[in-house]
Specification:
Elements lengths: L2 H27 L2 E3 L1 H7 L7 E8 L5 E3 L2 E8 L2 E7 L14 E8 L5 E9 L11 H6 L3
Parallel strand pairs: 1-2, 5-7
Antiparallel strand pairs: 2-4, 2-6, 3-4, 4-5, 6-7
Length: 140
């Protein structure tokens, strides 16, 4: 067999393997954002898929047990129990009533197993109310 043909076949195999690995990595890292209601509508299709679910942390539902944190998220009238057992510490803004995003998978028992939590407190990011004095100084 010609040396160039062997080299071409080797390059084709290497490129094929790289494309296969890239496609596998992309599909494994895909995360779909769902609301709690959408998650319920998915039924058994949601179990085992990597998902991101958003909602508000239900007041009084945060329970810390060592490195594991259990809480309930709610949106409108829907609720979802979440168990976080990730290695990253929870954000400072994670507290009762905070908006949260949980990355993970829905377990067979209907409990969302999160490996990453993002949280924000809506009141912390609201604009400060303008005082009438400030408006008068600006000539408004």
């Amino acid at each position: 067999m010609n040396t160039y043909a062997k080299f071409g076949a080797l390059v084709a195999v290497i490129l094929g393997v790289l494309v296969w690995l890239a496609m596998g990595g992309i599909s494994d890292s895909k995360t779909y954002y769902k609301t709690i209601a959408e998650l319920g509508q998915m039924g058994d299709q949601a179990k085992g898929k990597r998902l991101r679910v958003g909602g508000d942390v239900q007041p009084g539902s945060i329970v810390r047990n060592g490195a594991e944190v259990t809480f309930v998220m709610h949106q409108e009238s829907k609720t979802l129990k979440v168990v976080y057992s990730g290695i990253d510490p929870l954000p400072d803004t994670f507290k009762d009533g905070a908006q949260a995003l949980a990355d993970g998978k829905l377990g067979p028992d209907g409990v969302f197993q999160a490996n990453k939590i993002q949280a924000k407190c809506a009141s912390k990011y609201e604009a400060k109310p303008q005082l009438k004095k400030d408006a008068n100084r600006a000539g408004i």
